[in-house]
Each structure stands twice: as structure tokens, then as C-alpha cells.
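Hello K.,

You asked for the raw outputs rather than the summary table, so here they are, unedited. I folded two proteins back to back in the same session to keep the settings identical. This is the first:
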Amino acid sequence: AVKKDSFADFIVGEEKAAQRLTQPYGIALYKGKLYVADTGAGGLAIFDLAQQRFSFMTGNGAGRIKRPINIRIDADGTRYVTDTGRDQVLVYDRDDRYVKAFGVEGQFRPVDLAITGDRLYVADIAHHQIHVLDKGTGRLLFKFGKAGSGEGELFHPTNIALGPDGDIYVVETSNFRVQRFSADGKPVRTYGSVGSAPGSFARPKGIAMDRAGRLLVGDAAFQNVQIFDNSGKLLMFFGQTDGRADGLNLPAGVTVDYENIALFRRFADPKFNIDYLILVASQFGPNKVDIFGFGRMDGMDYSEGKPAVSPTSKPVS
């Protein structure tokens, strides 16, 4: 059996009392390290799961972090941080050393980005647009979107994800929907609408895509994450719905991870087969990061094609 505090020990070891996340938003897991963009604390909390070490990265000089919203990590380990305190995208190498910054005064207020090939798709919440930058130089290639609620228009795009089809999926918090674009910025379709019933949105924020093209969308008002197939059909939802204090609380960043399952395997039911991990950052409440396993339980009938979501661990406070 896993003792109550073993997950906290696993995350930060003896240093677990030294740091508490303040107001996390974005989250990423890369080669055994959990990165959390802590907006309130003005830096990146880094939990080395293999070494059971904790560090907090604020940068210095030209690489100083002010108000990080999201962090995305490229396949080569390059870290991209969207910073609304600087209105720039900050770039760090795989050793967390500052490399450069993208964005000039007045260009954008970046809140999230997606990485594909040699491009960065940057969500600009101030101008209701997506800026497409050259990944190496930061040069603007093109941009799309304008303020509005029609097809191809955006209103407060807050989070963005790359689909396995190469399309770009953008959460519009103030339009209560997810809008899908082709790689060249052409509108494809929308998902969801404002409402209080399952399958609708009240305050959507975080988004992630799995390899099957399913959309995982966090809603800060519903305190949950909803999972849709690529046609927009609601498959399931999970999170806090019964008023308990220890569930999701204003969930923001959502991401999926296929590479680090082994690190969390022992925290799941032995009969539960994990396909991938789902990481959710909550901005408030006692639990700031929750990690779930998406998969199938041995002996259960999944004839309707609905896998299960199960907590794999105790949350990170």
C-alpha cells in the first residue's frame, strides 16, 4: 500500500515543506521533471521527480521572469515561457539557461503557445489573435484572428493546443468555445457554447489534445475537465463537482504526457492500465497540481469506447 504522504515525498523529498505553489497556471512534464509556471510567485517551480529535488527558477538579467502564464517544452528540451509581465516569449535551453526573448513593445500579450515544426503559434489575449513566429528567430510569419464571435474571429484566446492532425485548437474564454484552425490560420470548426449543462462551457481555459484527437478542456467555473471526441461529442468529465475543498479549484493549465507514465505507475490501481497522464494545475485551493491516469481497468467492458480516468497520486500542494 502507498502511505498517505508518499506522493509528496516522491515529488520534493525532504524539501516538501520549503515551498508552496502560489498561483500556478501552465504545467509541463519533461524527462522526469515537472515544470509549473507559478504566476503569483513570478517564476517556474521545478520538481525533479527522479532526484526528489525542488528548485525555483526566476531567471536573472535579461532572462528575468516576471509573470509566467504557460510553459511549453520542445522535443530538444528548449523551454518557451509566455510572460505577461514582460509581454514576451522567453526562451531557455534544456539546462534552464536563458537564450533570448521574442516580442517587442506593443506586439502582443502572450498567454500560451503551441510548437510545431519550425513555428510557434502564440495566443495573444490583448489583440484577440494568434501570432505565428519563426521558432528560431521569433520573426512574425503571419497572424490570424480579430476581436469578435464569428467564424475565424477570437475573443480572449487563452490557451492553445496542437492536434495530431496538425490543426490548431484555441480556447476562447470569452466566447465560451474552442475554435479549430488549419495550420495556415483558416477556420475549420468550433466546439461548445455557453451553458451550464455538460458539454457546454462557462469559463474554459486549459486545453490539451491526445494522440487520438480527443480534446481535454478545463473549465474554471465548472471546476472540471471535459473530454470530447474530435467531432465534439462529450465523452466524459472529471474533477470537482461536489463542493469538497480538495478537488480542482479554478483549473487553468491542462496537459497530457505519454513519456513519464512509469514514474507514476505505483500510485495507480494495479489493474488500471494507463495510456497517458493528465496534469491539471489549479490556481487556488490546497491542491495546486493534480495528476490523473487515462486508460482502462482490467475486467471492465468498454464496448461503448469510453476509457476511464483515475487519480494516480496525491496532488502537489
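The second followed immediately with the same parameters:
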Amino acid sequence: YRNSLILSEPQPVILVDHNERSQAVEGIEFARVIEIVDHHRLGGLQTNEPIFIRQEPVGCTATIIANMYWHRNIAIPKNIAGILLSAILSDTVLFKSPTSTEKDRVTAEQLAVIAELNMQEHGMALLKAGSSLNRQSPADTIRQDLKEFKLGNLRVSISQVYVMDSGELASKIDPLQKELESLRVQEGYDLALLMVTDILLESTELLATGSPLKLINYAFEIEPQASGTYHLPGVLSRKKQMIPPLGRAAQELR
């Protein structure tokens, strides 16, 4: 399918859960973007014609999609309801994330009824299943949830992984740091960051490589710990708690 995007006849594409060119599929510049369904910041993507945009400040794009079903009086199948519910619980970190809204919670409750799932039990099982650093290689940990951002003149990658016990990180810092630097050099990023977010403690240990690292010091008024990581208490959201302060710092320091 990716190859079909570079054919002479532009292929119609709907961007879901992203709108920035740097996060889109390779060859997106040759495609015809006809719709965007998203909950992130607008990243400056240009189109050649007016398009439909469903952009809402909610915690998860799945919240928007579920309500699009209901707005059109289309019943959501049980299996699809389970998938949408899982996405909401994951994206909002069981509603602990500051990005979560009442609309996310109400939508999730309705989806849980359709999917015949206990929302709390399913959410904890879901987060636990994806939280261990021990089941993945450093490369997989960094690349499984990576997003690229343009902050001022800087190209920055920010990855995020969730853990239920931040003690898992201690023995993984060096290999993760080496893999992060390898990624940065390979992809040409100025900065490469990895958020290791403890769900239970509601805090993040931030690994960083590249330059300028003073961007992090300036954005969060913090110095690195002896381990080289940055401790960010209360920080769970990449979108709401990482990007805005880093963006402001990039503008002020340039």
C-alpha cells in the first residue's frame, strides 16, 4: 500500500490520530489528503483543497471515532467497541493523564457496556501487559511509540513507554541510552528523548541524548540525576506536559 502512494494518480488518504507530515506514512506528499480525525496539535500540514477535519481536545482519537459512529446512528460491533475502549484506557492511562476529559470517560463507559468488559479490570490488565521493559529489546522499547516533532529549528523524537514499577529501569538505562543515541544519529534528530512513565507513581524518568540538552533544563527547570535521567513528577502526557514546555523553550532559546 505504501508504494501506491507514489503513483502518478494521487491516492485518497485519511489521517487518523496524527496530522503532521513528519508522523505520516512515507510518500504522503504525493497523496490526496481528504480528511483528518485527530486530537493532537495542528502541525502545519498543507492541502490543495478544503477537507473535512474532526479535531477535538480529548484524551484519545478513539473517543472521537466512537462518537462519529453514534452521530451517524451506526451501531458499534462488540469487538470494535473493545478495541476503541482499549485505546481510550491506554491513551488516558486509565483517566490519570491530564489529557483525559469527561467525554473520554463517558464514551469509555458506553463502550464497556457494548464490549461487556469491566472497565477498571480491563484497563489495569491492558496497562500491565504493555508495561514491562523486560519483555522488549531497547530498540523495540524506543521505537514502539515514537513521534517526531519540529520544535523551533530542532527535529526532536519523543518515545514513551509505561511501567508499573520504575525500579525496572535501573538496569536498562545504559542500553536504552545507547540505542537512543543510535536512533538519533541514524535518523538525524537533534534530540532523542524517551519517557519512561510510571503509571502507579504518576511520574516520568526522561532519558535524553543529543543537543541542546539545556532545552530540557530550561523547559522544566531541572538538572539531570546521577543516573543521567531527568525526574519529572506528575508528568504522564507527552502531548500536554512535554511538547508545550519544550516548544516554548525552543522558541525562547533560539
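The CA atoms of residues 95 and 105 lie 7 Å apart.

Happy to rerun anything if the numbers look odd on your end.

Regards,
P.
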